[in-house]
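for the writeup, i need someone to sanity check this before i put it in the appendix. the sequnce is what the collaborator sent (i think, or maybe the updated version? ugh). structure was predicted straight from it, no edits. if anything looks off just tell me and ill rerun, i have time this weekend
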Amino acid sequence: MKTMKISLSLFMIFLMLTSCSGQDKAVPNCVQENFKKIYPQAIGIDWDREGKFYTVEFDEERIEKEAWYDKDCNWRMTESDVSYMNLPRPILDAISNSSYSTWQIDDIDHIERNDHTPFYVVEIEQGERERMLFYDATGKLLKDASTWDESYKNPDRTLDF
């Protein structure tokens, strides 16, 4: 009987925790509808909150993506993982012809924002040193950051390039 009471108590705690966490992630219908219009082929959809933004992680055509929407249901940004093989040739050439040609590429993202032309973020490393290189699709270096700068992921921040 004691085991049953403990099990029942644990189950009730679990229900309370899961019901509370669901309220924090409540996504307005208009945000979900706008998402479905832009990404009708999305699978593995997982909604969350980042401050005042609704974010959704998903896969589309075997590419991991994260889209951001504001409280007014407007799309603000999408970050897409990019493989080395899919990085535009002009960016590969720009890196190969730069002082970073011997550095290792660690991660690549393609960023689309509603207030900026699309760009790529290439994270590179050499030993303990890391840099973030921002390029447009033509291979033009937009920014070379020696410090870790993920402010581009905040749709409210104005980009300095």
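Residues 82-161 form a domain with the Nuclear Transport Factor 2; Chain: A, fold (CATH 3.10.450.360). The helical segments are 2-24, 29-38, 89-96.
thx in advance!!
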